[in-house]
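User: Here's a structure from my thesis project, written as structure tokens. My advisor, Dr. K., wants to see whether a designed sequence matches the one we expressed. Can you design one independently, without my sequence as a hint?
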């Protein structure tokens, strides 16, 4: 019996070695601030237009408003739980999604045509401005805005803006794992505008292990509305067919050993 077990072990040793080689070993995680979307290298994303509820300022439909907490799913099948802290100001609208476009659309410093998730605004203080006019800012809901992932990811980030122009504001990103351990906290200075020039700062985080479960975005001016565009994600890839075949080979070896014993 010992000889039989030894022969089986030798026979399937290459498969066992291959699996050990491709499976990641535990390592101490390190997190890094990412300030360019291209540098994040995402393999999944969430575009807010995919939710199908876009607010049109030219023909307001209040059914397009969102609850402060809602769920979404990325094209890669990753579940996201979005939570925007409610405001104490009853004049401020619920959160909504809009497409940033030239006047009479809503202008921002995201790219023209971007779908933007916005915390909410006080309509009484909103005055449409002609192109080239400085925006003094309108009171709104500045969050914090939290995104939780159904499955931990390697990284994620988005461009972020605050609804006040020509004033430097500090924007913050804080990341946590699935047991609420702090992974990192970062901030960058940003200046919003109405230029539609894609100058909104990108604020992201990446890790060498898939341990990022929750991101919190906020700013140093929470009295002004907080806005983000598409969320880029480095999601955990599906297991490859090669790994499945190798695992199947080892399973077969174990089964044969059990049958012969």
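Assistant: Designed independently from the structure alone:
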């Amino acid at each position: 019996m010992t000889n039989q077990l030894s022969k089986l072990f030798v026979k399937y040793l290459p498969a066992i070695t291959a699996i050990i080689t491709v499976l990641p070993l535990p390592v101490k995680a390190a997190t890094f601030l990412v300030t360019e979307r291209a540098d994040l290298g995402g393999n999944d994303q969430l575009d807010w237009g995919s939710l199908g509820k876009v607010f049109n300022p030219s023909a307001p439909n209040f059914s397009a408003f969102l609850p402060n907490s809602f769920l979404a799913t990325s094209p890669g099948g990753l579940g996201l739980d979005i939570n925007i802290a409610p405001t104490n100001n009853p004049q401020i609208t619920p959160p909504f999604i809009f497409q940033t476009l030239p006047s009479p659309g809503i202008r921002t410093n995201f790219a023209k045509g971007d779908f933007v998730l916005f915390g909410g605004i006080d309509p009484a203080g909103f005055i449409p401005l002609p192109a080239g006019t400085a925006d003094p800012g309108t009171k709104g809901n500045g969050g914090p805005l939290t995104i939780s992932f159904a499955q931990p990811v390697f990284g994620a980030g988005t461009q972020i803006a605050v609804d006040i122009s020509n004033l430097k504001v500090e924007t913050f990103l804080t990341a946590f794992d699935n047991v609420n351990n702090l992974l990192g906290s970062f901030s960058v200075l940003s200046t919003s505008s109405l230029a539609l020039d894609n100058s909104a700062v990108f604020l992201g985080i990446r890790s060498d292990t898939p341990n990022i479960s929750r991101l919190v975005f906020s700013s140093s001016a929470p009295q002004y509305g907080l806005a983000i565009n598409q969320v880029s994600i480095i999601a955990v890839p599906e297991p490859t067919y090669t790994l499945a075949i190798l695992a199947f080979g080892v399973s077969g070896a174990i089964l044969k050993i059990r049958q012969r014993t």
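When you compare it with your expressed construct, this may help: Residues 2-22 form the longest helix (21 residues).
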